[in-house]
Amino acid sequence: MFWITTWIYPTIGTITIFNGPPPNCEGDIDSDGQVGLSDVLIILSEWGCSDCISDVDGNGTTGFDDVISVLAVWGPCTG
């Protein structure tokens, strides 16, 4: 069983602790819990590939639209 605990502190913001695998989110190709540079690098390394994990937009080929899709959701996965 997995659980999520969130604390909100007025002076420092919100702290969330996940017990389990990182949350899934579109654009998090390497499943590290955030969309970042490593995800863009995977797209670039698989450029032009058909039906690869880096095909974020699901059109069948890794390319420019996949980079844009990843940049649009840049940052930590929230659940």
Order of helices and strands: EEEHHE
Overall geometry: elongated
Low-confidence stretches: none
> What percentage of the residues does DSSP assign to strands (E)?
15-25%
Largest sheet strand order: 1-2
Total beta-strand segments = 4
Mean pLDDT figure: 81
Contiguous helical run count:
2
> How many strands, which pairing sense, and closed or not: the largest β-sheet?
2 strands, antiparallel
Fraction of residues in H or I helices: 10-25%
Give a concise summary:
The protein has 79 residues and is α+β, with helices and mostly antiparallel strands. The chain is built from 2 helices and 4 strands. A two-stranded antiparallel ribbon has the order 1-2. The chain has a two-stranded antiparallel ribbon with strand order 3-4.
What are the SSEs and their pairings?
Blueprint: E1 3-9, E2 13-19, E3 34-35, H1 37-45, H2 64-72, E4 75-76
